[in-house]
Amino acid sequence: MIVSTKGRYALRVMVSFAQRGGEEYIPLKEIAEAEGISQKYLESIMTTLSKAGFVDAVHGKGGGYRLNRKPEEYTVGSILKLTEGGLTAVSCTSQGASACSRAECCNALPMWEKLDKMINDFFEGITIADLLKESK
Amino acid sequence: MIVSTKGRYALRVMVSFAQRGGEEYIPLKEIAEAEGISQKYLESIMTTLSKAGFVDAVHGKGGGYRLNRKPEEYTVGSILKLTEGGLTAVSCTSQGASACSRAECCNALPMWEKLDKMINDFFEGITIADLLKESK
DNA sequence: TCATTACCCATGGAATTACTAGGTAAAACC
DNA sequence: GGTTTTACCTAGTAATTCCATGGGTAATGA
Fold first, then answer.
1. Cys-Cys crosslink for A88: which of A29, A71, A94, B65, Cβ 3.0 to 4.6 Å?
2. Predicted confidence pLDDT, tens digits, chain A (136 residues)
3. Of chain A residues 92-111, which have a beta carbon within 7 Å of strand C?
4. How big is the CA angle at A39 (ends A75 and A134), to the nearest 5 degrees?
5. Cβ contacts of residue A42 below 8 Å, gap of 6+?
6. Residues 83-112, chain B: which have Cβ within 8 Å of A?
7. CA-to-CA distance for B102 and B47, rounded, in angstroms?
8. B105, A2: Cβ pair inside 8 Å?
9. Has this prediction a pTM greater than 0.85?
C-alpha cells in the first residue's frame, strides 16, 4: 500500500481545517474527536505538518492549529510526500535504497520510474480545495 | 510501497523465462542462481504462478518450469495482482477492508478509486514482451 | 499560579515481509 | 526397484513497519 493511515489522516485533518475556514485556532483535541482519530497519534502528525510550515501552531488556551495558506494552495502530493516520506511505488526508485545492484540492467526500472511520475503528477494535480468540493 | 519483492521477483522470473524462449523446462535452481534470488523463497512464488496456470511445471529429472503462453499474452498487471494479492494504493479500496465506516462521506474516496483505476490500467497496458524489449 | 494547549521521547503490540528449514510426492534414469 | 532429481507442502522466524500509547516538558492566556 502506497498511502498509510498517517497520510490519510493528514489529508482528512487538512480538509477538516479547510472546511472550518476561519482564522481561529482549533485545538488538537477537538479535531481528533471530530474525526475519530487517536489524539496522541494525531499529535505526531500535526507536529510534522507544523514543522514543515503547513499549519500554524499556538500554545495555551485559545491556541491550537490553523491553516497557513488557502486550501487551493496545498496539493495532495505535497502533504503525502511530507507525511509518508515519499510516494514511490517500489523501493527500487526510492532515494534511500540506491543499492539495487541490478539497476543498470533491470528491464523493469523504466516502468517503475514511469509509474512514479504518473502517481506524482496525479497527486500534484489535486488540492485540498478539490477534496473539499467532494463533500456533501 | 505498492509492489514488494514477491511481485518484482515474479516479473523478473517471467522475463527470464521469456528470454530463454524455448519449450524446454528449466529447473527452479537454475533460475534462482541466474537471478540471484533465494531458491526457497522463489519456490513459493513459482508455486503461486503454477497454481494459477501461468507456468507449466514438471517433476523429476529434465523437469522444471516453462511459460504456458507467449510473452505478449502476460500483462504485468495480471502477474502483480496474482502475486501481490491485489494492487490497491490504499486499504480503503481493497476488498477485504470493506469496513471503513466513513466510506459514504469520505471526500477522498473518489480520488483513491481514480488512482486505483489509473494504476490498474497502467499495469494492464504492459506485457512481459514489452519488458523484454527493454533489456540490452 | 493554574489550566490549557502544543511539543518531545521512548515504548509496545500487531501485522507484514522476506526468507529459512525440513519433509513429501512425482517423474526420470540406472 | 532404488536412487536421483525435480516440484510441492507446512511451519517457523528475524527484521521491519505501522499504529498507536504513555508520560513528561515548555509555552501561553486567564
1. A94
2. 789 999 999 999 999 999 998 789 999 999 999 999 999 999 999 999 999 999 999 999 999 999 999 999 999 999 999 999 989 989 888 765 455 777 777 889 999 999 999 999 999 999 999 999 987 5
3. none
4. 35
5. A9, A13, A28, A31, A32, A35
6. 88-92, 94, 105, 107-108, 110-111
7. 38
8. no
9. yes
